[in-house]
Specification:
It holds the Pfam family F5_F8_type_C. InterPro entries: FA58C, FN3_dom, FN3_sf, Galactose-bd-like_sf, Ig-like_fold. This protein is α+β, with helices and mostly antiparallel strands. The protein has 9 helices and 22 strands. A hairpin with a 4-residue loop joins strand 3 and strand 4.
């Protein structure tokens, strides 16, 4: 299981690096220290990914360079070989001592992944050997947490390598990280770090041009998508390192906000690449925002400034009603003029704080038809500053006799695949949004809180391509003890309408037990009807 990023879209590291860091983290090593120079400049990213048209697995990241390993308390050891048989005994000895052993293999020899770049080498980690079956257990993080290879197949893979790649790599822990020395290196890295923000300037100019912007973006898309993974992922690792080295948590929060905004930009371009429909102004506004964030965050970090009261956000726009049912209303508002570091919005009903949202819309529960409510919102930024409340909207909802009971209700899930595919998407009433579990989970679940125990007879599941082949619909009154009310062992995906259910409960859970794909489980929507 990949436990460093836990979000596939943030992983920008090559196969060997992510496997080694993941192994060290699983072994209890404090890997957040390793990110002290993780932040990659946008200038470097632009040169490598846009000018040279590289893919992210070819990007020369700053993470886990061998020159840093001594300070990190690690000693890499390589065992050279000519033929697999020459080092089999050594391999078994290492595995018996619970060592993960890394080996290169030719991409064309990899039996479990046919999508690797042709004529390249690929890293796998050997974790165990089963004497009775003569099989080795393999990890190929991030996509394959457990595989089994026959000894003959592994031997062939190793023997087919060029001599320069024939070695086993493992690690000895010689000491804990030299934290004082590493912190000094981090401080020097921050002091010397420069970024002309060329990456952002290039795309600002492109989006403002009168040329064939859409076709150029489409041609660039694989490299642009990888570049945004590098920017988002490297700031994620750098933020965690800042916290680990004792920097004020506000610096961590700054770079986490930047990472999330880059991830949103990545999603914007991903949707455009699929639909071939580009919202140039939306993309331009987001790029300009991230560029300003990069500049201000670096200035604050270099200056050591933590008094950020001057960044108080402006007042959000007046809320408006988007939709409602008999118990909930969905509202939206415009962002304030000064919104650079805004991370969330507080929602007030009749003067009482009733919820929050990281989007420009939110849901208010426990409302009654034909009653008028005073609704307002307030912006909160990454520094903890809050804005003045918005102007108050007086909103009355109308009764709806044929309502979807799940619409806009609270949702809880076993996992979410980043901010893009979050749990609330299954009840937001928007056809183009979906929830996805992380792909590492074999069993995942998601449930809707109806607010009170309710009888229902129909559940409609709208699956994305990554559907559950085997799943159970369950109900509960306390979200602890669950009762099975429907089970399917041969799910087909698409829209599955389950009728004539004798259902009763406050919480309705979809318990997914078997995947139809190697990715996570994914639902566009869950609808529940009386």
């Amino acid at each position: 299981m990949e436990i460093v990023f836990k979000n596939f879209s943030l992983n920008y590291l090559d196969c060997r690096t992510i496997q080694v860091i993941n192994y060290l983290k699983a072994s209890g090593m404090p890997v957040d220290y390793y990110g002290y120079k993780a932040m990659e400049s946008s200038d470097k990213v632009f040169h490598e990914m846009i000018r040279l048209r590289k893919r992210k697995w070819r990007f020369p990241s700053n993470i886990l360079r061998e020159s840093d390993m001594q300070d990190l308390g690690l000693r890499p050891i390589r065992v050279l070989f000519q033929q697999f048989a020459d080092v089999k005994d050594k391999l078994l000895e290492l595995l018996n001592n619970n060592k993960g052993v890394f080996v290169w293999v030719n991409a064309e020899d990899v039996l479990h992944n046919l999508n690797l770049e042709a004529a390249s080498i690929h890293s796998i980690m050997i974790t165990d050997y089963y004497n009775e079956s003569h099989q080795y257990r393999i990890q190929d993080i991030p996509l394959y947490p457990e595989l089994f290879y026959d000894e003959a197949d592994l031997a062939t893979m190793c023997n087919n390598l060029l001599p320069i790649h024939k070695d086993f790599l493992f690690f000895e822990t010689v000491a804990g990280p030299d934290v004082d020395k590493l912190r000094s290196k981090l401080e020097a890295y921050i002091h010397n770090y420069t970024d002309g923000l060329i990456f952002f300037d290039y795309f600002i100019a492109l989006l403002q041009s009168d040329g064939q912007v859409g076709s150029e973006l489409h041609e660039l898309y694989p490299h642009l998508d990888d570049a945004l993974s590098i920017l988002a992922g490297s700031r994620f690792l750098f933020a965690k390192a800042l916290l680990k080295y004792g920097f004020h948590e506000r610096y961590h929060d700054l770079y986490m906000v930047i990472s999330r905004n880059v991830e949103i930009l990545k999603l914007t371009f991903m949707k455009a690449a699929v639909t071939r429909t580009y919202d140039y102004q939306k993309s331009l506004d987001l790029i300009l925002k991230i560029k300003r964030m990069e500049r201000e965050a670096l200035h604050l970090l270099k200056a050591g400034v933590i008094d950020t009261s001057r960044f108080r956000p402006g007042r959000p726009g007046k809320p408006v009603l988007l939709d409602s049912n008999n118990t909930n209303m969905k509202i939206a508002w415009d962002e304030p003029e000064d919104h650079l570091w805004v991370t969330s919005y507080e929602i007030f009903k009749d003067g009482e704080l009733v919820g929050d949202s990281k989007q420009l819309h939110g849901t208010i529960n426990q409302v009654t038809p034909e009653r008028t409510y005073a609704i307002a919102v307030r912006a909160r930024d990454v520094f903890g500053n809050v804005s003045e409340p918005s102007l108050v909207s007086l909103i009355t909802i109308n009764p709806n006799p044929t309502e979807n009971l799940a619409l806009y209700k609270p949702v809880v899930a076993s996992s979410e695949d980043g901010i893009t595919f979050c749990k609330d998407n299954i009840v937001d009433g928007v056809a183009e949004t979906r929830w996805s579990s992380v792909f590492e989970e074999e069993v995942s679940w998601i449930y809707v809180d109806l607010g009170q125990a309710t009888r229902f007879s129909t559940v409609v599941l709208n699956w994305e391509a990554a559907y559950a082949r085997k799943y159970t619909i369950q109900s509960s009154n306390d979200a602890k003890q669950w009762t099975d009310i429907y089970r399917r062992n041969n799910g087909q995906g698409g829209i599955e309408q389950i009728t004539d259910i004798q259902g009763y409960g406050r919480y309705i859970r979809i318990y997914c037990e078997e995947k139809a794909t190697r990715f996570g489980y994914s639902l566009w929507s869950v609808s529940i009807f009386k």
